[in-house]
Amino acid sequence: MAVLIVGAGMVGSQAARQLLDRGETPILFDLAPNLPHLATVLDPGAVKIVRGDMLELAELIAAIQDNGVDRIIHTASFLYEGVLRRPYAGTKLNLMGTLNVVEAARQTGVGRVVFCSAGFIYHGVWEGMAGQPEQVVDEDTAMRLVSDRPRALYAVTKLSSEYIGLSYGEQFGIDFIALRYGGVFGPWKGPVSGVPGRFVDQFARPGAFGRPIVLSDPFLNGVAGGGSFLYCKDAAKATLLAAFARPEDLKTRVYNINMSRTYPIHETIEIAGRVFPNSPVQLTPEVEALLLGQRYQRMFDITRARQELGYVPDYELERAFTDYAEWLRAYEGE
Ligand SMILES: NC(=O)c1ccc[n+]([C@@H]2O[C@H](COP(=O)([O-])OP(=O)(O)OC[C@H]3O[C@@H](n4cnc5c(N)ncnc54)[C@H](O)[C@@H]3O)[C@@H](O)[C@H]2O)c1
Predict the structure, then answer these.
(1) Pocket test for ligand 1, best of 179, 181, 188, 200 (most atoms within 8 A of CB)
(2) Structural domains present in the chain
(3) Which of 81, 93, 138, 249 is most deeply packed, by most CB within 10 A?
């Protein structure tokens, strides 16, 4: 049997690589597969790549039936800024894409569907916690339906997709799991669309080549910087654990997945100093002013993922920076 990976981007490519490593058959389904990137992560000759649009239900069903698929990993999505720039197209893609994936699974009798959600759905809860000491947020954290609702359309599409999938599970027999990733970064050839990836790239891209690291973007550093990270290889690892988990081990079906702690930006700067000793970190005055006194009071608890999926991250931030820098030196050049 085969695993259909919808979306051959940063996480989808790593999931395919790890499936190959364990002797499984990944089928990569993508609107516009990035072949130069895939060649840096896996042997493109070893995977089947299907060019298709998840907004076309018939194309998903054909990919499932033509390839004997019995599990689906659903990664394709517009990310935060994509939805911000193109709200109609982004909302349609994220909601209709998930609906099509679970409907295709229902019509073809596919068992497991793993959906890539985001810790960003707690967005409204963080705002209510501003100024409070460190908070631990688990998957069932109390969220006032109005005041704490996610304030960004991207987060709304992710939470709504979870509800669509879970309802398909309860009412139509789909075996659905949602993984709420922290900010994902790591090997990716092409424009980096995720905010966390761009935050990390400020350090890793110059650092890998011994150039000075300059933090100059107030949005990336003041608003989005620091926090809960996830290396893309661990995202793929958690996703495969979910794809192959025994149903009897799953009590909750929604899991936080991250490095199991947060990294305030001053600590990220210290880590960059150790990994990239030839790249001094400079802050523009505007960013320096924004970061004065900044602290993070959120920690997304991964206890459920550890207990039910057996997920333990392999990469903390320093190891992830080191691994990513190796990939950059090998494939991106100066
Ligand atoms: N990157 C992050 O920081 C982050 C954080 C939390 C959650 N997530 C979630 O993880 C998942 C994977 O993220 P990523 O960084 O690998 O994304 P990515 O942008 O690298 O990959 C997404 C892939 O989906 C494909 N795609 C887009 N529309 C499609 C369509 N209609 N049909 C088929 N394929 C289509 C794109 O071509 C792209 O290759 C996403 O669902 C994202 O929301 C990502």
Answers:
(1) 181
(2) 2-184+229-260+297-314 (3.40.50.720)
(3) 93
